[in-house]
């Protein structure tokens, strides 16, 4: 028996739920090589016998407050949970060994890392949940983007009465009870903590699971006493929002390739049961070859055993009408935001604007769409279809689903295999030379000013300390990508 076979034998009780069950039930789960059996107890006949070859995806759905995983099989989602994150980790590793042995090293924590393992170079981004720094991994000189999320914003002082310009709140959690009284503050704060912790884990899980060239790659996660950290691949071209705000315009050809790549990324997320909820130019990065990658999944959510959600999430100008109204929504909100981005790239402005938030929401929900520039009929039809107020009439949300988008006349000359392989020549190639690299980032400082004193300041600010995974268990992860060196194009950047 080899090592893979010895690990791929596991038997424990887990809480089990499928799409056909209304509540979780305790089941004895037994994995033996490539067969998973689920039964009431050792003496009972199996309720389910699953060949692992039939599994389409294995998903870590732990969120910091509960520990769980899910198996996608055809049109069914099987959900498993336990009180101990170690048990869930063992199951995920064992399943992945059989499902895809090569993925094992990308999944488990191989060693503990912390801020001491990085040289912090400069701030390259700031967002609702924290800062993003350009850093160098000391072991091999690899440049990475290091995103931090302060634990204070996750575990305390995190309740909010209003949706921010880039945040998420439950439409239910802010309501009063049936007697008209406000809810208990302790319960409200607990709900906020649980919700924020779920978003932190969801971002990690989504990045771990997403294997597409159009989504930023997660290399590792770790934590200090004060913060959670995501080690991401460094995408040196900055984001589309920065380039648009600095007067950059793109040809109709370039816009079409951009929109095709973004559509591929959204399609990938939706097939995994993930709604993005914060698509905007600032969350679309440009790589060194001019192609795009989505980033920042802090507001994203899995829709696995539920078909919709009601939280008010995202950035005001990109919110869908149904989200503003507090109605249940699903993946259609992403196609609305996609339509806003398409309009912005083709028209050069946002379709709905106002400094007054109430008026902005009213315009998004009620005002007719106006297209000012003379654009081809297929482009106009594409935007009008995406920006339908009624999600049931929205392009990508009808009977044919996303094929309404991929098959739209706007994309009639697009070869989707060439998009997938990034074969199209890009007109805009960002300057990522040492002299101009930081011009791609709004927050970045001049690299020539970075010195040991600044590095020490950043280390102090983020509480550089030894590995600590006791505060939020189950968060840390170490993939293979961090250990591989930079590609040649990055060797002389810093």
From TrEMBL:
Region: Disordered, residue numbers: 157-191
Gene from which this protein is expressed: pkgB
PANTHER family in the cross-refs: RIBOSOMAL PROTEIN S6 KINASE
One Pfam family named in its UniProt record: Pkinase
Domain AGC-kinase C-terminal stretches: 412-487
InterPro entries recorded: AGC-kinase_C, Kinase-like_dom_sf, PH-like_dom_sf, PH_domain, Prot_kinase_dom, Protein_kinase_ATP_BS, STKc_AGC
Protein kinase domain location: 118-411
One MF annotation (Gene Ontology) recorded for this entry: protein serine/threonine kinase activity
PROSITE patterns associated with the record: AGC_KINASE_CTER, PROTEIN_KINASE_ATP, PROTEIN_KINASE_DOM
Identification of the protein by name: Protein kinase 2
Keyword Nucleotide-binding part of the UniProt annotation: yes
Residues holding ATP: 147
Family: Belongs to the protein kinase superfamily. AGC Ser/Thr protein kinase family. RAC subfamily.
Feature: compositional bias, Low complexity: 157-168, 178-191
Keywords: ATP-binding, Kinase, Nucleotide-binding, Serine/threonine-protein kinase, Transferase
Keyword ATP-binding: yes
């Amino acid at each position: 028996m080899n090592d893979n076979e010895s690990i791929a034998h596991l038997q424990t009780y887990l809480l089990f739920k499928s799409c056909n069950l209304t509540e979780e039930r305790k089941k004895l789960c037994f994995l033996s090589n490539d067969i998973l059996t689920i039964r009431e107890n050792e003496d009972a006949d199996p309720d389910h016998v699953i060949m692992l070859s039939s599994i389409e995806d294995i998903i870590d759905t732990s969120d910091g407050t509960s520990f769980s995983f899910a198996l996608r099989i055809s049109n069914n989602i099987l959900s498993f949970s336990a009180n101990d994150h170690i048990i869930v980790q063992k199951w995920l590793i064992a399943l992945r060994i059989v499902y895809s042995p090569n993925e094992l090293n990308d999944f488990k924590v191989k060693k503990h890392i912390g801020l001491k393992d990085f040289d912090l170079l400069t701030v390259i981004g700031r967002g609702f949940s924290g800062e993003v720094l350009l850093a160098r991994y000391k072991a091999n000189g690899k440049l990475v983007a290091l995103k931090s999320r302060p634990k204070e914003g996750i575990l305390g002082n995190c309740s909010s009465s209003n949706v921010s310009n880039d945040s998420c709140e439950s439409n239910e959690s802010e309501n009063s009870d049936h007697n008209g009284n406000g809810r208990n503050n302790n319960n409200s704060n607990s709900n906020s903590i649980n919700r924020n912790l779920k978003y932190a884990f969801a971002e990690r899980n989504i990045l771990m699971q997403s294997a597409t060239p159009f989504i930023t790659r997660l290399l590792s996660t770790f934590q200090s006493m004060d913060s959670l950290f995501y080690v991401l691949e460094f995408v040196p071209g900055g984001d589309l929002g920065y380039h648009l705000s600095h007067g950059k315009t793109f040809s109709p050809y370039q816009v079409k390739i951009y929109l095709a790549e973004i559509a591929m990324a959204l399609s990938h997320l939706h097939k995994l049961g993930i709604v993005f909820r914060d698509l905007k130019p600032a969350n679309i990065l440009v790589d060194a070859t001019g192609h795009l990658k989505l980033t920042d999944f802090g507001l994203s959510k899995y829709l696995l055993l539920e078909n919709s959600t009601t939280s008010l999430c995202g950035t005001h100008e990109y919110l869908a009408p149904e989200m503003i109204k507090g109605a249940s929504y699903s993946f259609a909100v992403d196609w609305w935001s996609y339509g806003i981005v398409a309009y912005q790239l083709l028209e050069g402005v946002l379709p709905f604007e106002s400094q007054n938030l109430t008026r902005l929401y009213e315009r998004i929900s009620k005002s007719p769409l106006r297209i000012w520039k003379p654009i081809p009929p297929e482009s106009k039809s594409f935007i009008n279809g995406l920006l339908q107020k009624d999600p049931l009439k929205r392009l990508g949300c009808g009977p044919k689903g996303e094929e309404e988008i991929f098959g739209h006349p706007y994309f009639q000359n697009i070869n989707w295999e060439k998009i997938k392989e990034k074969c199209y020549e890009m007109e805009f190639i960002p300057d990522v030379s040492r002299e101009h690299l930081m011009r791609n980032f709004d927050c970045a400082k001049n690299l020539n000013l970075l010195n040991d004193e600044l590095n020490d300041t950043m280390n102090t600010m983020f509480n550089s300390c030894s590995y600590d995974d006791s505060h939020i268990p189950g968060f840390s992860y170490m993939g293979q990508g961090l250990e591989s060196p930079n590609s040649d194009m990055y060797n002389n950047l810093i």
